[in-house]
Amino acid sequence: MVVNDIVKKLNLKVFNKNADLNLEVKGGFVGDLLSHVMGNSDEGQVWLTVQTHKNVLAIASLNDLSAIVLIDNQQPDSKMLEAAEEEGIPVLGSDKSAFHLGGELFGLLEISS
Amino acid sequence: MSGITFTYKIEGGDFVNAGKASSEIKRTLKQLNVAQKTIRRVVVSLYEAEVNIVAHAHRGNIDVAINSENISIILKDEGPGIKDIDKAMEVGFSTASPSVISMGFGAGMGLPNMKKNSDYLNVESEVGVGTTVTIKVALIE
């Protein structure tokens, strides 16, 4: 499963124009404490968060995450969006909660594994 | 392999550039074919240390030395220093400002993450002067 599959199946908004939607999705991670995400997330995971600043991109890039999903209708700030355009890591959005969206993502990944 | 060194300057409060050193070191270690897990440990340790300078200090320098066996990182800052280093090493203890906490930093996990992901961690500090953190990670098993 690649990012584009979850964009379609979970009806996600894509915020950055040059998002690489072919990155493979290996799992998910939910967290808003950045050190927790830095220390525990894994390569290929989709990160669900309410954090909307540029440091989110730095962490996603350093940990080789495949996408960031801003939940509960959060919008990336301008610096985050700029960094997303540079890095190509997809910054996605949903009006759903982390609980709801995480549940759906888990279901999708369970089926595909 | 001969040694490689890098130096970075960090400005306190500059969250926009936080992670630049970590990103460059990650790239270098990848080019040197260091194992993915080891790169991960270095990056977690360095990123946390970088963010600590940005979040707490006025400014700092990072000196990185890489040889065939290990990576050694010295982060020296000018800043408020740490009153009680043992306390600072405890999970959940934080002196971060509300604005830093609102960004999702300052949960008291930085130093514990560094300890967990490094083979050697030393913190020396003088209150009102600054803090020097030394991190070493073995690059070969």
Low-confidence stretches of chain B: none
Task: Quickly give the structural class of chain A.
Answer: alpha/beta
CATH names the topology of chain B as Heat Shock Protein 90
Q: Give the C-level CATH assignment of chain B.
A: Alpha Beta
Question: Helical percent range of chain B?
Answer: 25-40%
Topology as H/E string of chain A?
Answer: HEEHEHEHEH
CATH architecture of chain B: 2-Layer Sandwich
Write the CATH fold name of chain A: Udp-n-acetylmuramoylalanyl-d-glutamate--2,6- Diaminopimelate Ligase, Chain: A, domain 1
Largest sheet of chain A: 5 strands, mixed
Q: Provide a count of the helices of chain B.
A: 5
The radius of gyration of chain A is 12 Å
- Please identify the top-level CATH class of chain A: Alpha Beta
- CATH superfamily heading of chain B: Histidine kinase-like ATPase, C-terminal domain
Tell me the strand order in the biggest sheet of chain B: 1-2-3-5-4
**What best-fitting shape of chain A do the alpha-carbon axes yield?**
globular
Strand composition percent of chain B: 25-35%
Average of per-residue pLDDT values of chain B: 96
Labels describing this entry:
heterodimer; A: 113 residues; alpha/beta; Udp-n-acetylmuramoylalanyl-d-glutamate--2,6- Diaminopimelate Ligase, Chain: A, domain 1; 5 helices; 5 strands; B: 141 residues; alpha+beta; Heat Shock Protein 90; five-stranded antiparallel sheet; 35% helix; 29% strand; globular
